[in-house]
Amino acid sequence: MTASKNILVVDDDAKLGEGLCEVLELEGFVCARAATAQEAVRLAAQLKPSVVLTDLQLPDSNGFQLCQSVKKISRDTVIIMMTGRFLSTEEKTQGLQLGADDYITKPFDLRELSARIRSILARSARPAGG
Length: 130
Prior knowledge:
CATH architecture: 3-Layer(aba) Sandwich
CATH superfamily: Response regulator
Strand content: 15-25%
Shape: globular
């Protein structure tokens, strides 16, 4: 039942990205970082991460467009959107329709983030109907 534990963290805030990776690695995940959507798409194609944890606002794109690009690479990749602002129901719905699996609002508790990731990975590892 060992689902792959590779995570791609996408955030243009270097300190936040590095901090997230440090904590996630302590939690047993293997972490890669990208600062732009373009870099994230390249790394997603190369590394095939189980989870993409992405900021909604990126310097060269947005999380919704990145979500679409990553889902073209692998429909199975879990995408969690991080946002620092309130999202309307329409925005959340749009993200979910494009393939986002969850949202988390900054600032967030790192234990909660880890628990969310583990929960989503456990669900996605189960056989259909099980």
